[in-house]
Structures are given as structure tokens and as C-alpha cells.
Queue: 2 jobs
Job 1
Amino acid sequence: MAKKSWMYSVLEAVQYEMRQDKNMLWIFELTPPVASTPGKPVINLEKEFGRKRVVNTGIDEMWMAACTLGAGLAGSRAVTYIPYQGNCMCFQIIQNHAGKLRSMTGGMASMPIVYLLEMTGQTPGFAGQHSDYEIDTYYAHIAGVKTVVPSTPADAKGMMVSAIRDPNPVVYLYPAGLRELMEEVPDEQYQTPLDKAAVRTTGSDITIVGSGGGMPELLKATETLRQQGMKVEAIDLRCLKPMDTETLVNSVRKTKRLLTVDQSYYTLCPGAEVIARVAENVDGARFKRIAFPDAPPPAAPEMFLWMRPNADHIVAAAKKLVG
Amino acid sequence: MSERERSEVSHEAPASGQAQSWGRRTFLKGVIGAGAAVTLVGKVARAEGELGFWGKDLSSDKLTEMFTNIVRIRWHERTMVDKMLTDPKYRGYNHFYAGQEAVAVGVCSALRNKGAFDEVDLVYSTHRPTGHAIAKGIDMKKMAAENDFRATGINKGYGGEMHLSDKSCGFIGADGMIGPGHVIATGSAFAIRARGSKQVVVVFGGDGTYATPHFHSALNNAALLQLPFIYVLENNLYHQYAHYSYSCPMKDIADAARTYRIPGVVVDGQDVIQVYNAARTAVERARAGDGPTLIEAKTYRYYNHWGAPGAKPGELGAFGYDPLAISTFRPEREVRAWMQRDPVDICRNILISWGVLDRAKADAIEAAAKREAVEAFAWADKQPFCKPEDGLKNVFVEGTVAARQLA
């Protein structure tokens, strides 16, 4: 056990799996699979496994996604790490190929592959094309692909192990704004399920649901509300598809109030799906969702930080719903 | 000249250990005085009938303007580096163009940069756009304000460095992505050919773009449709932190042009006259309806991919370890070797040797460029910040969108 960052935790999981499976591949561009953490050995996949298995490609996300899929169809496990600038360049391959091949082959195709897609939108000033926090919505919509978004280093490791061992294509979203988060993460290999939400705090007044890069602010708001006497059940969605309807429904049956928080655009954000599923199953509940407005993220921090849902926005919305 | 010789002349920076210990100006004076590398490739190219040698026929005013724009870019970049290093209130994140000035200026000097929107030539730029923007004619003050996200910036604080644009001079703009912009640029060229407006479209791209599927799409369609399109590939050897050999199997990316049966030209990107000659030839071809050209300018950036790690205030260039590069970084000797063939010095010395400028005049131009840059950033510092609620504007032409973060 040691304190580990998100990426150290992920690469530790991948390193173990690549040592077990001599055919497993890692495909990257620009960002070498290297991580370090105090008191632990440096992980360098390229150095350890060589360039036949760990390839640094040119800037071509379509190839990265297609190569990963092709490797899977040929029977090898493969992971590709696509940086945020290119995380929709590969959309066609994932949406129209990886997502449909299992069905189109009548169940014959097996695709033990992981699309590790970096997402950002956390850094004020990056703006426009370098802000793409809305991809959770895009990818979660695809049938035939599991889409997950861990928010802690410990989940990042356990869910990466599960994603690699899963015979289906998994889109594994990495909210890069969490890159500096550190926590105790077990050294040994363990699995975290790809279909379970995590209840972070239990409470009976209101259920607040968020995911990924929005979780730190959501938990901050939960603490503020607790100090003011509100009992919040904070849920980290973790899995967008399949979505853990049971945990959500059970919580709102108890609290009768549901607030969802997204950094994705408002229209069709994951929270919209959460509310729809709960509304179908729980009578007499009240709902509210907050999200990034349906506007491209502007560069100026004054505009961007006001538009991105933060702890103050969450506290205000919760009070309105409970009050 | 064999391909190998041509590559060596145009590509390799001199690596003489002695040269490194000289001042960069002293060294270049020696090289140019001996009539070496600087004009060699141009002469050879002319002998092959590939390029016109237009540079020598330009007016003194035009040549002086080219030198002026080179030093304007240089001092803009240096001032921006110092700003980033010394002013904790400066919020811009920047990709510096220093070292590549001759490419932007050589190309844009062959373009129409003033006039109505259906008259000016169009430029599509990259994530390293400030040099292209200045060479095309953007207002430096407003650009500095945009880079610090001010409400009076050229794009009102919505864009920032990687999305700068200025329609008034045909600068369609920066593009933070690698690939799509090049294909989009062919769309502009397609419209221009259809309406017969005699404009040309230039897209700047880096060596990393060769790996993208968009490179093929842009050149293939431009060649098939004979579009007025010029692809200027600035090969500064690195895409982000990876050497271009990771994305390209050949030494000269311009070789790719053969596949499309279009001209592919390699030029010394440190020599503004060579770049101009190639650009002018390509522009005349495009305007005449004879189709696209691929120009590969061999060049180098003096700073790391992003920001100023390894740089010191008041000093040109960044050296040594870049934490963002994680496991690979450029050898310091390589950076210093390239700095021996500095585009500012090369242009300056050519113009002095041609009798266009004397040293005093060149010094005065450079001093004025430095003042302009310092004043631009000082002006930007005084500009108002954006209003939060303005973030809901400019989504569509009409109206504003709802503030969904508020309950």
C-alpha cells in the first residue's frame, strides 16, 4: 500500500496484466506510459515491454482506435491511450465498428479492448477545442460498448483491471483534471465492477449524483451541506453504461429528492439519464439537474469558471430542492 | 543535386563545436560573408527550374518590411516568454514560434493581406499561431489581450492563443487540433475556385500532421480538384516531444507530393528569401488555376512544445529538461546548433549584403519591434476582464443560451 496518483494506479494495473499476458498491447501517442510515485519503482511500459508491444504512434487517433480494435478481433488484448485533443477523432471506429461488431457477427466477435480516453475541460483558459468534458455523453450513448468514468485512483486501478479482463470493448474515461489526486491504493491486483455506482456518503434528505471530474466539488458541497444540517446521499456514478439503476432508485426511494451534477453539456448529460431512470421507478420525487450550459467553453476564466458547476452551485441547488 | 545532398544542405544545422563558442551574429557573418549555405539551395533550385528567384527583385521597402516582420515576431515571442516567466498575474498559456519566423514571414509576404474578405488570401494556422498571425497582419495589441483572455482581445476572450483569428486580414485562424484544419482549408479553396475570386488558401501544419489521415485527404482532394491550395509544412523536427521519425518514414515529407502529382518543395526554413521564393512560385501557380503545392520548410523552435520550461527571462531559447516531455527531451546541443542559423540574423545579413539595410538601420528596426511588443503587452495588461455571463453569448448568431449551472 502506498499513496498513488491516478496514472500510477492505472499503469500498475496494466503492467501486471501485461506481465501475465505476453500478447497484450499498449498503443499511445505523445504521452509515454511512464509514472512514478514516492517509494515505488518507476513504471515505464515502453521500456519494460519493448516497442513491438508498446507503440508510440504518429498523431493519428483513428489508427490508434482501429489498431486496438483490429488487435482485439485478432485475439489479443489491447489498450490505447488517446489524449484529450483527439478523443473524438476515434469516434467512428468505436461507435460504428467496435460497438456493433458483436451484434453483427451474431456473437462471434470478441473484443477484449480498452479505449482509455483522456477528457479535459478542467483547466480554465484551455477553451474550445482543448475542452471536451462532454464526451461522457457521446460515448455513453453507444450500444455495445461499456463506458466508465472512475473518479479516484483506487477505482481507477480496480476498474482498469476489470476493463482489461472484460471481453467487451470498454471506453474508460480519464478526467485529466484529477491527475494530481493521490490516495492509498493497494499494490496487489483487484477488480472493481464495471456496473456499480459508489455511494460516497449516506443520507436521507437528498440524493446528489455526479461522476468523474465533477466528484471533488460534489463531495465538497456534500460536506458544506452536512455542516449545515442536511443529510446528503452522495453517489458517484462511475459506470455510465451499463448504469446502476438499482442503487440510484433505492437511494431516491429513501430521500425523495434527486439532484444531478454534470460538467457535460446540459442537453442529454448523464444526469438526464439518471433522472429518467429514477422517475420511471420512484413516485413522488422531486428532481433537478445542473450541468455546463449548452455553450462551448470560453477561454476567459471569468466566464468558464462561472459556467462550470462548482460546490457553490451544488449547495444552492440542493437547498432549493430540499427547502 | 542528389536528394541526400539537398537534404543535408537544407536540413542539418551546422554542428561545429567552434561555432557554438562564437556569438551567433559573428558566426553568421562568417558564413554569409563566404556566400555559403544561405543562398545555395535557392540557386540550385533555380537551376533545376523548380523555383523562381523572386526575392532579389523585390523592392527595398518590401524586403525591409519582411525583416521588420521577422523581428516583430521575434520580440513578440521573447516578450511573451518573459511575461510568462516573470508576471504571476499573466494567465496566458503559450506555444512559442521563435526560431521559425522566416517561414511565416516568407510565406505571408507572398500573399495578399489587405483588402475585402473576398480579395485577401486566407491562412489557416496551428496551435503555434502567433507568428503566422503577425505575418498575416493581426493587431499585435489585441492579440496580446486575447492571449490573456481580456474582453477587448481580438476574439473577446473566447478563444485564447490556440483559437486566435482575424477575418479582417484573412487570418482564418489558429487550430488547436492536428489534422482537420488542413482539410477544412481545402473547402475554402474549393469555394474560391468555384466563385473565381483568385484568392489562394495557405495552411500551415507541423511535421506531426503527416501521420494524420487528414494530410492525405487534404492533398488528394486539392490535387484532384486542382485547388488554389498551398500546404506549408513546418518541419521543426518534433511533434510535441516526439521526433518526426515517429510519424513519418521518409526524411523529406515533401516527397509525399509525388504521390499526388503536385510540386513538393523542400526549403531552408531559416532563410526568409528561400521561403518567399517557394511561396511566391506556389501562389502564382495557385492563382493561375494550376493547383496545389506542398512546401516543406526545415526549421526549428527555440522553446519547448508548450510554455517556457528551461527558459530564463531575458535570454533567447529554452534548454534542458522539460517535465512535460516526461521521458524524452531535445538535446541542448541540437538547440544551440540550430540557433547558429538564426532567421533574424540570416535575413539581416542578406539585406545588409544586398545594400538594402545598414547595421544602424537594422538595429533601429529591431529596437522599434521590441518597443512595439513591450507596448502591446502593457496595453493588454490594462484591458478589462470578461463578464461571466457573457459566456452564454456567441453560441449561435442570435440570442444567448440558458445558465444551466444555476438551479
Job 2
Amino acid sequence: MPATDLKNKTLDWLDERTGWRMVRDLADHKVVPIHAGTAWYYFGGITLFLLGIQVITGVLLLLYYRPSVAEAFDSVRFIMTRVQFGWLIRSIHSWSANLLILAAFVHMFSVVFTHAYRRPRELTWLTGIALLGLMLGFGFSGYLLPWNQISYFATKVGTDMAASVPIAGPAAARFLRGGEEVGAATLTRFFAFHVMILPLITLGLVGLHLLLVQKHGMSTPSGVSPSQLAHMKFFPNFFLRELVIWYGVLAVLGTLAAIFPWELGLKADPFASAPAGIRPEWYFLAQFYTLKLIPSHVWFFEGELLGLLGFGLLAAGWVALPFWATGRNGEHRARLVTAVGVFLICYLATFTILGYLK
Amino acid sequence: MRAPAILFFLYWSLSGASAADSCVTCHSAMEEGTKGPATLIKNDVHIAHGLSCADCHGGDRSSDDPTIAMSKAKGFKGKPARTAIPRFCASCHANPDIMRKFAPAERVDQYELYQTSVHGKRLAAGDTNVATCIDCHSVHDIRAVKDGMSPVHPLHVAETCSRCHSDKLKMAPYKIPTNQFEEYRTSVHWEAMTKRGDLSAPSCASCHGNHGAKPPQVESVAAVCGTCHVLFEALYDKSAHKAVFSGGCIVCHSNHAIHQPSTAMLVGPDAVCSECHEAGTAPAQTAAQLAAWIDGLDRALKQSETVLTRAEEYGMEVSEAQVRLIDGRENLVKSRLALHAIDPGEMRKPIDAGMAIAKETLAAGQAALREKDFRRWGLAVSVILIGIAILAIRFLIRRIEARP
């Protein structure tokens, strides 16, 4: 039997059982509109690529990491010093976690400024925001896992903030810590969140998000019909361009990991005093600095509580953006959304820099 | 009818509370020169414990009439004579029943000790120039020893002693030196006390005693130093020097001006060994050998530290080696300690252990620096490969898009 016949028969056999040609046809027909904002489309792919790196490096770290108070720090040190390329895996995991959150933020704001959240993409927006929340959750839970001095006290401060929220706060903080204080139970709990609970939810949400993107296609700028625009094929044209960018991101990651390997610090000592100038990771810094600026009491309210309530309302408003961005008569409040987006970027950038400098 | 009664009760209770101590009231109203005690007592530890002037000086503090308040019939003792001061204070401080009420943990043998001291003996012989309780503890503004403002707080003891002992005029009749404080201020003990805030560092009273103050005799100096430097004393006792030097530690280290010891004490122009052992003799050669070992270990550890610091600055994880280096430094301390036995065999052990650690940590540091270079080269190669891959993809895109 000629080789081409054997190949075709095998592919037919596979198609009959898996329907893979349907996926190929979908990919064949998927197109990407070409316009001034096409470059912003790449950020979704960059975020997905970094998430993939997180999964691969995370699984490799799991081969040596031991989630107990007695062993966590030493096992990370073992990874950094004794395991072949362990330093590279851990440094890439930590750096890509940060770049992932940065890419997710850029992706979110690109959606805001290109108004890609409009009907019928409300659910795409909601799943995207939920994924950003999950990424922040990954950051918060993963930060504690090396069980070093900075991460221990940052978790203490973070869970204390959660505890100050009225009604559900104390119970939520107890649930997160597995007790009244950050300790052995917190470490195992955060480990479970980081490697099992959050990844499972993320897997489902990423699938849904991609499905919705596939269903609705790429969004085009408001006021421009997709038929008025030129298009390029997703496979291979857009995908190859995306691949170039992924390679670039990989080079950046490798450079960061080789020149600035992720620090390990000192082993956590619950009886030591908190290190001077302790602050959370950069993506929580703006909120942290804002809470620091709020007086301890504002009128009848506790300052921190008021700040947290403010953030809660802001987050709720941001999540609901596709709904308030459209008026009762169906008109699109594009200017308002752009203004809110610019304000939010200015606030986050300014307060993050101030929080870093102060 | 009820209102005036209440007002009278209020006036009586308030005025009663504020005008209870006529000593303070009257002395506060006196001229500058005589009202001193009344203004000083606000900081006094006795007042803080609820005592008053009359508890020491006698008299009736409840009377506004000076003739009654300071009458002998009311037990007024007035200002005690200088020679009577220790007994005056001891009337309470040597009485356990009284002291238990105010400071149960306080010792009550100060007066007894004072009488055995040079100060106490001279006072008993009628010399009123010597120190009594008030010269060290102050008078009327006496603070607790743990109070940082107290003249007998560990931080101030040396200065307080120096008020008399650095006074050439005052010390002339006794024919004793007056440069002790000046010398002490150049010592490691003073540095530990004042610069590092180590209140356990010795000052005058730690070696000379406080209430039973007397100079340590020549043969007891090593024992005095040995109360803190226990291991040094034990090794010194094993050495050949023990039988030769009655002065013990001070022969090499001095007494008040105890400086940071270094190998310059063993070899070189300022070597204390050379004061007894001529250059070229076997003991002088041994001293030079011991100094060379210590300096060699010190240099080796410093070299390891420099390399590890460089590796750390490049972001390399070298904490294990840095912890190991602490063990190396401990061996350096042990070798300096072992020196006091003047036994090269004993000293070789920590030197060898320290050198092994220095070698091991240096190797770890150098390996970290090599690893750093390897990473940089690896990065360069990876970036070049990534660049080639990017160019290849760009070429592929062009080729695909060039197709009709």
C-alpha cells in the first residue's frame, strides 16, 4: 500500500472517532481583522503562553517542593542550589508569574480601550476578569510557599486585611489561614489552593473564555463593520506572528532569570519582628499604599475598613462595565469608559510607584 | 444647709491631700540656696514609693509650724554629719523588714560591705573626703539603679567614679593614679558599653566591687577577669605564663586601657611577647608562628567572604556557604582563645578546622561565580538561538504571504 494511502486511511480512522477535521476546519476558517489596533490582540496570546509556562515550571517545581513549615524553605533552597537548572525553573516561574499578571492587565485595558466588551461579549469580559482575579489569587498563594521572612509577613498583613472586612471577614481570614495565625495549616492550605483548586477553576474558565472568543470572533473597533476590514488567516499568518512574540517573551524571561535570579531570602521566623519596609507584590501595592494613606478613622468608620469597602465597590463597578457602558436606549458610553480606564491606569501607576518609593 | 456642708467636705479633703507635707511646702517657698531638696525630690525613688522628707530626717510633716515640724520632740534628726551618712541610709537599707515593703528583691548588706571597703574604712577613721552613699547615688534626687538617669546606672558608673578618682587634687593625699577613667574610655569594655549598648560590659564596679569597693590584689586580677572570661582563664592557668606572671591578664592586656587584641601583640615592633622574649629565641619564634596561623586563617576567611559576597551580589544563592563561614569565624575565635594556653598543638585544631571551612566556602563561592558565568553564556546562546528562530519564522511568514 502506498504511504499516502496509509496516511489518509489513518487520518480518516482518527476523524471518524475524534472528529478532528472539524477543529481543523474551524482553524482554517478563523480570521483576524487587520486595523490600527490589531497589535492588542497579541496580549491574550501572551497571557496564555505565560500561563502555559507557569504550568510547566510549576509541575517541575512540584517534583522537589515539600509543603511543610519544616521543609518548605529548605526544599526551595535545594531547588535553587542542588537541582540541575532548578534555579532557572524557579526564577522563570516567579518572573513569568509577574509578567503574566502584567500581560493580563494590558490585555484587560486593551479590551477596555478598544471597547471589545460590548454586546455580545459580556460573558467573555466576565470570564476574563474572573481569570485576572484567579491570577492574583495564584500570586498571593504562591508568594507564601517558599516560607521566607518577607512572604510570611506579607501573608500575615494580607490575611489581616481580609479579617478587617465586617461580617464575613474574620471567618474568611480563619478559612484562609486554617486558624487564628499564619502557620503550618496556612502553608498546606495555600499549597492546595495554588496547585489544585485554583488550577482546576482556571482550566475551566480559560476553556470557557477561549470558547467564547472563538464563538464571537475577534472584536473590531466600534463603528467599523468587520466586512469593511481586511483580514488575515489565524493559521498560519496570525499564529506565526504570535509565535515570534512568544519567542521574544521567552528571551525576556531567560534574561531576567539569568541576570536577576529570584531571591530566596531568610527562612520565616514567626517570633522575629516584621522586616522593615515590608510591602506586598507590586500588583497589590497601589491598594496597599492607598490603605496606608487613609486615616485610621474617617468620621464613624475605621479607615482600613472604609478603604476595603471602596475597593470592593470599585471592583464591582469594574466587573459590571459591559452593563453600565450601554445606556438605556442602547447608546454606547465610549467616552465615559475611556475616561474611567485612563483614570484607573493613572491611579494604579501613580500609587504603585509611590508605594514602591515610600 | 446641705450645700455648704458638701463644699466644706470637698475643701477639707482636697486641701488635706495637697498640704500634707509641710517640709515640701515650706522649703519650696525658701530662697534658691535652701529650697534645693524640695525641688529635687520630685525625681526621687523614695518619694515614688510614698516616702517623704520626714521618713529620713524625722520631724512632723503635718505641722505648718516650723518649730513643731522640726522639733526634736517629734524626732527631727536634721542633716546628718558626713561620717554618719552610711549609717543614716542603713537604718532602712540594712533592715530587711523595712526593705521588704518597698523593694523585696533588694540586698540589705550594702552597709556591711561598705564597712569592709577602702571608702568605709577611711570614713571610719575620720577621712570625710572618701565616698559615702550620696556621692555615688546622689542626694534628694536618688533614682533607681535601673533608671537610665541614675549616676549608678551601668552606663554612668565609670563617670561617677571618675568624679573623684580623676580629680588630681582630691587623689593627691592617697597617692593613687587619676588616669583610670581616661584609659578606660579607650578600652574595648567602654566601647561595648557605650557604642554597642551592652550593659553587661564591665565598668569600675564590675572588677572593683561597688559597696565593698577595694582594688583587686595583683594575684587576684586573673580571677577578676576570669569571672567573665572563664575559658581564657582556664587556658591561661594551663600555660607556662601562669607560674611566672603574678599580674595575670594585665601583664599583656593592661588593666583599664584594654584594647582590641591582635596578632600585633605577638609579633612586630609593638609585640608584648618581645618585652620578655628576645627576637630569635624559641618562644619568640613560637609567638610568630601562632600569629602567622591566626593571620592566615583570618585572611583565608576574609577571602572566602569577599568571593561569597560577590557571588551574592550577582544574585547567586550562597546562603549555605555563608552560614558555614560563620563556623569558620567561630574557629578563628577559638584559635585566639587557644592561644592563651601557649600550646601550638592545642591551637592547631581550630586553625585546621577553620582553614578547611575557609577552603570549602571559597570553593563554593568560586563555583557560584563560575555558575554565574555559565548562566550568562547560556543566556547569550539561548538569545541567539531564539533570534535565529524569530528570523526563520519571519522568513516563513513572508514566504506564505508572498503566495498568490
